[in-house]
């Protein structure tokens, strides 16, 4: 009987190396197609269930299209007190307490070729009552989510009063 | 008028005003101009020590470094996120949770089978939906890639221009469709929107 699994030619006895790390200079020139570094897709609406489902769908669509989803979060809602005045007077007729909820999906490295297609797909699935905004990332978007630290703010103020941080 | 002359008869020779007819002897060349003032009983003012500017700078730098250290310490504890109302169980429900619990009866077989078949139909439907979406997107991407390839072969400059970032694209806004068309000659009521979001300032 032929022991095929034991018979090895000289070429098979050479050790095979698989490249685990690539040299850095290959990617040093930057991407061929320009990209937006961080893009925030913000969805706002009064109806929470519709908004939540839409947010999940947007997230899934981005993953299916091969886009890099960096982060996705919910910002605290905006509470509105809406007053209806009686006809031609300033007397309050009815009052409503409504909340505007918000969801955000953050994409990283969105290529210029992919961006318009993604936005079109998102827009096609936009449900009623939801407002969509796609913009580049600003630190304010994430700062809004945190409770402001008063001590930290005071310390920063003291530092600026003394004349800026110490130069090192 | 009280003057030194009147108080002390021998102080005549110290006073500048000379009365005619009186003689006094003094060996001083210039008049001794004495002046009486109220008792001050105070020290002469201390001279302000001129602080070495280097020391001043050192002091300020030390203070700044202290503040920066405190800032770094506070920043290390990552800030607290504002609580999301929509994702929290309302407190009234949490208090009533014991009352709200209900005993569940075992499910009937027919109900279970019906639910299983419904679940299968629903997953089939959703799969079809997902499949059509993904197919559509993939065909669009494929045709776009082909077009870009052809353009590149045609002219490198045109391809480069086509691939540039569109500055007018972001920020992009869109509103969802509405269920009914706008009502004709509708008078919208007058009113106000007051923002009552809690600020943690």
From TrEMBL, chain A:
Q: Name one GO cellular component term.
A: ribonucleoprotein complex
InterPro entries hit by this protein = Ribosomal_mL48, Ribosomal_uS10_dom, Ribosomal_uS10_dom_sf
Can you give the residue ranges of the Small ribosomal subunit protein uS10 domain? 40-135
Q: Does the keyword Ribosomal protein apply?
A: yes
Keyword annotations from UniProtKB, A to Z: Ribonucleoprotein, Ribosomal protein
Pfam family for this entry, one: Ribosomal_S10
At the top level, the lineage of the source is Eukaryota
Determine if Ribonucleoprotein is one of this entry's keywords: yes
Q: What is this protein called?
A: Small ribosomal subunit protein uS10 domain-containing protein
Organism field: Cherax quadricarinatus
Q: What is the lineage of its organism?
A: Eukaryota, Metazoa, Ecdysozoa, Arthropoda, Crustacea
Automatic annotation (TrEMBL), chain B:
- What protein family does this chain belong to? Belongs to the mitochondrion-specific ribosomal protein mL40 family.
Q: Which UniProt keywords apply?
A: Mitochondrion, Ribonucleoprotein, Ribosomal protein, Transit peptide
Q: Which GO terms describe its cellular component?
A: mitochondrial large ribosomal subunit
Location of the protein in the cell: Mitochondrion
Positions of the UniProt region annotated as Disordered: 180-201
This chain belongs to which protein, by name?
Large ribosomal subunit protein mL40
Q: Which domain of life is it from?
A: Eukaryota
> Where this protein primarily resides, as one coarse class?
mitochondrion
Q: What is the lineage of its organism?
A: Eukaryota, Metazoa, Ecdysozoa, Arthropoda, Crustacea
Taken from the record, one Pfam family name reads MRP-L28
Q: Which InterPro entries match?
A: Ribosomal_mL40, Ribosomal_mL40_metazoa/plant
């Amino acid at each position: 009987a032929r022991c095929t699994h034991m018979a090895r030619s000289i070429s098979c006895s050479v050790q095979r190396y698989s490249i685990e790390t690539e040299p850095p200079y290959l990617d040093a020139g930057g991407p061929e197609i320009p990209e937006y570094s961080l893009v925030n897709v913000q969805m706002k609406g009064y109806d929470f269930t519709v908004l939540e489902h839409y947010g999940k769908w947007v997230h899934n669509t981005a993953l299916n299209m091969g886009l890099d989803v960096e982060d996705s979060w919910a910002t605290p809602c905006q509470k509105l007190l809406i007053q209806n005045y009686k006809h031609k007077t300033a007397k309050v007729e009815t009052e409503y307490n409504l909340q505007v909820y918000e969801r955000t999906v953050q994409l990283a490295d969105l290529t210029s070729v992919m961006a318009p297609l993604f936005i079109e797909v998102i827009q096609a699935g936009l449900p009623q009552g939801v407002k969509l905004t796609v913009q580049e990332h600003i630190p304010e978007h994430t700062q809004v989510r945190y409770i402001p630290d008063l001590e930290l703010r005071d310390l920063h103020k003291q530092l600026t009063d003394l004349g800026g941080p110490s130069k090192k | 008028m009280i003057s030194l002359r009147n108080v002390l008869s021998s102080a005549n020779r110290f006073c500048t005003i000379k009365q005619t007819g009186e003689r006094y002897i003094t060996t001083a060349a210039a008049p001794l101009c004495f002046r009486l003032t109220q008792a001050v009983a105070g020290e002469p003012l201390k001279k302000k020590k001129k602080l070495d500017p280097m020391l001043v700078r050192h002091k300020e730098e030390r203070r700044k470094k202290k503040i920066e250290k405190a800032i770094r310490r506070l920043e290390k504890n990552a800030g607290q996120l504002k609580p999301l109302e929509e994702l929290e169980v309302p407190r009234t429900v949490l208090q009533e949770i014991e009352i709200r619990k209900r005993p569940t009866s075992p499910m009937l077989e027919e109900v279970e089978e019906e639910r299983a078949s419904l679940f299968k139909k629903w997953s089939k439907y959703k799969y079809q939906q997902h499949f059509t979406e993904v197919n559509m997107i993939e065909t669009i991407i494929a045709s776009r890639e082909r077009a870009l390839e052809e353009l590149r072969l045609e002219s490198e400059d045109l391809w480069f221009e086509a691939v540039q970032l569109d500055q007018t694209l972001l920020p992009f806004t869109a509103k969802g469709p509405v269920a009914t068309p706008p009502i004709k000659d509708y008078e919208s009521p007058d009113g106000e929107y007051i923002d009552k979001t809690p600020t943690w300032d």
